[in-house]
Design brief:
Blueprint lengths: L1 H8 L23 H18 L3 H4 L7 H22 L1
């Protein structure tokens, strides 16, 4: 999700580990409430699996393949909607 925010939603204006920003790329950026909601929901979901929670919970639950398929499809749709909006 993080890479899709950088590369698609923010149109590569700000990219991790790059020393500069490209403010002229903001001309193509439009952010809607639905984007914020999708980001909030999915970043929270990702954090459950990506961050090391073993010290706090004793283990990290691994999502089942069907859940991963649904999450990946949601990400694909998010990217598609943002890209189509920019056209």
């Amino acid at each position: 999700m993080g890479k899709s925010i950088e590369e698609v939603l923010f149109n590569r204006t700000v990219v991790r580990y790059r020393k500069d920003i490209s403010p002229t790329l903001l001309m193509g950026v439009t952010i809607e409430v639905s984007d914020k909601n999708s980001i909030s929901t999915n970043m929270s979901k990702c954090a459950q699996y990506v961050h090391d929670l073993s010290d706090e919970t004793g283990s990290v639950e691994i999502p089942d393949p069907d859940r991963l398929k649904v999450d990946l499809e949601e990400l694909r749709q998010f990217v598609k909607v943002v890209q189509n909006r920019r056209k």
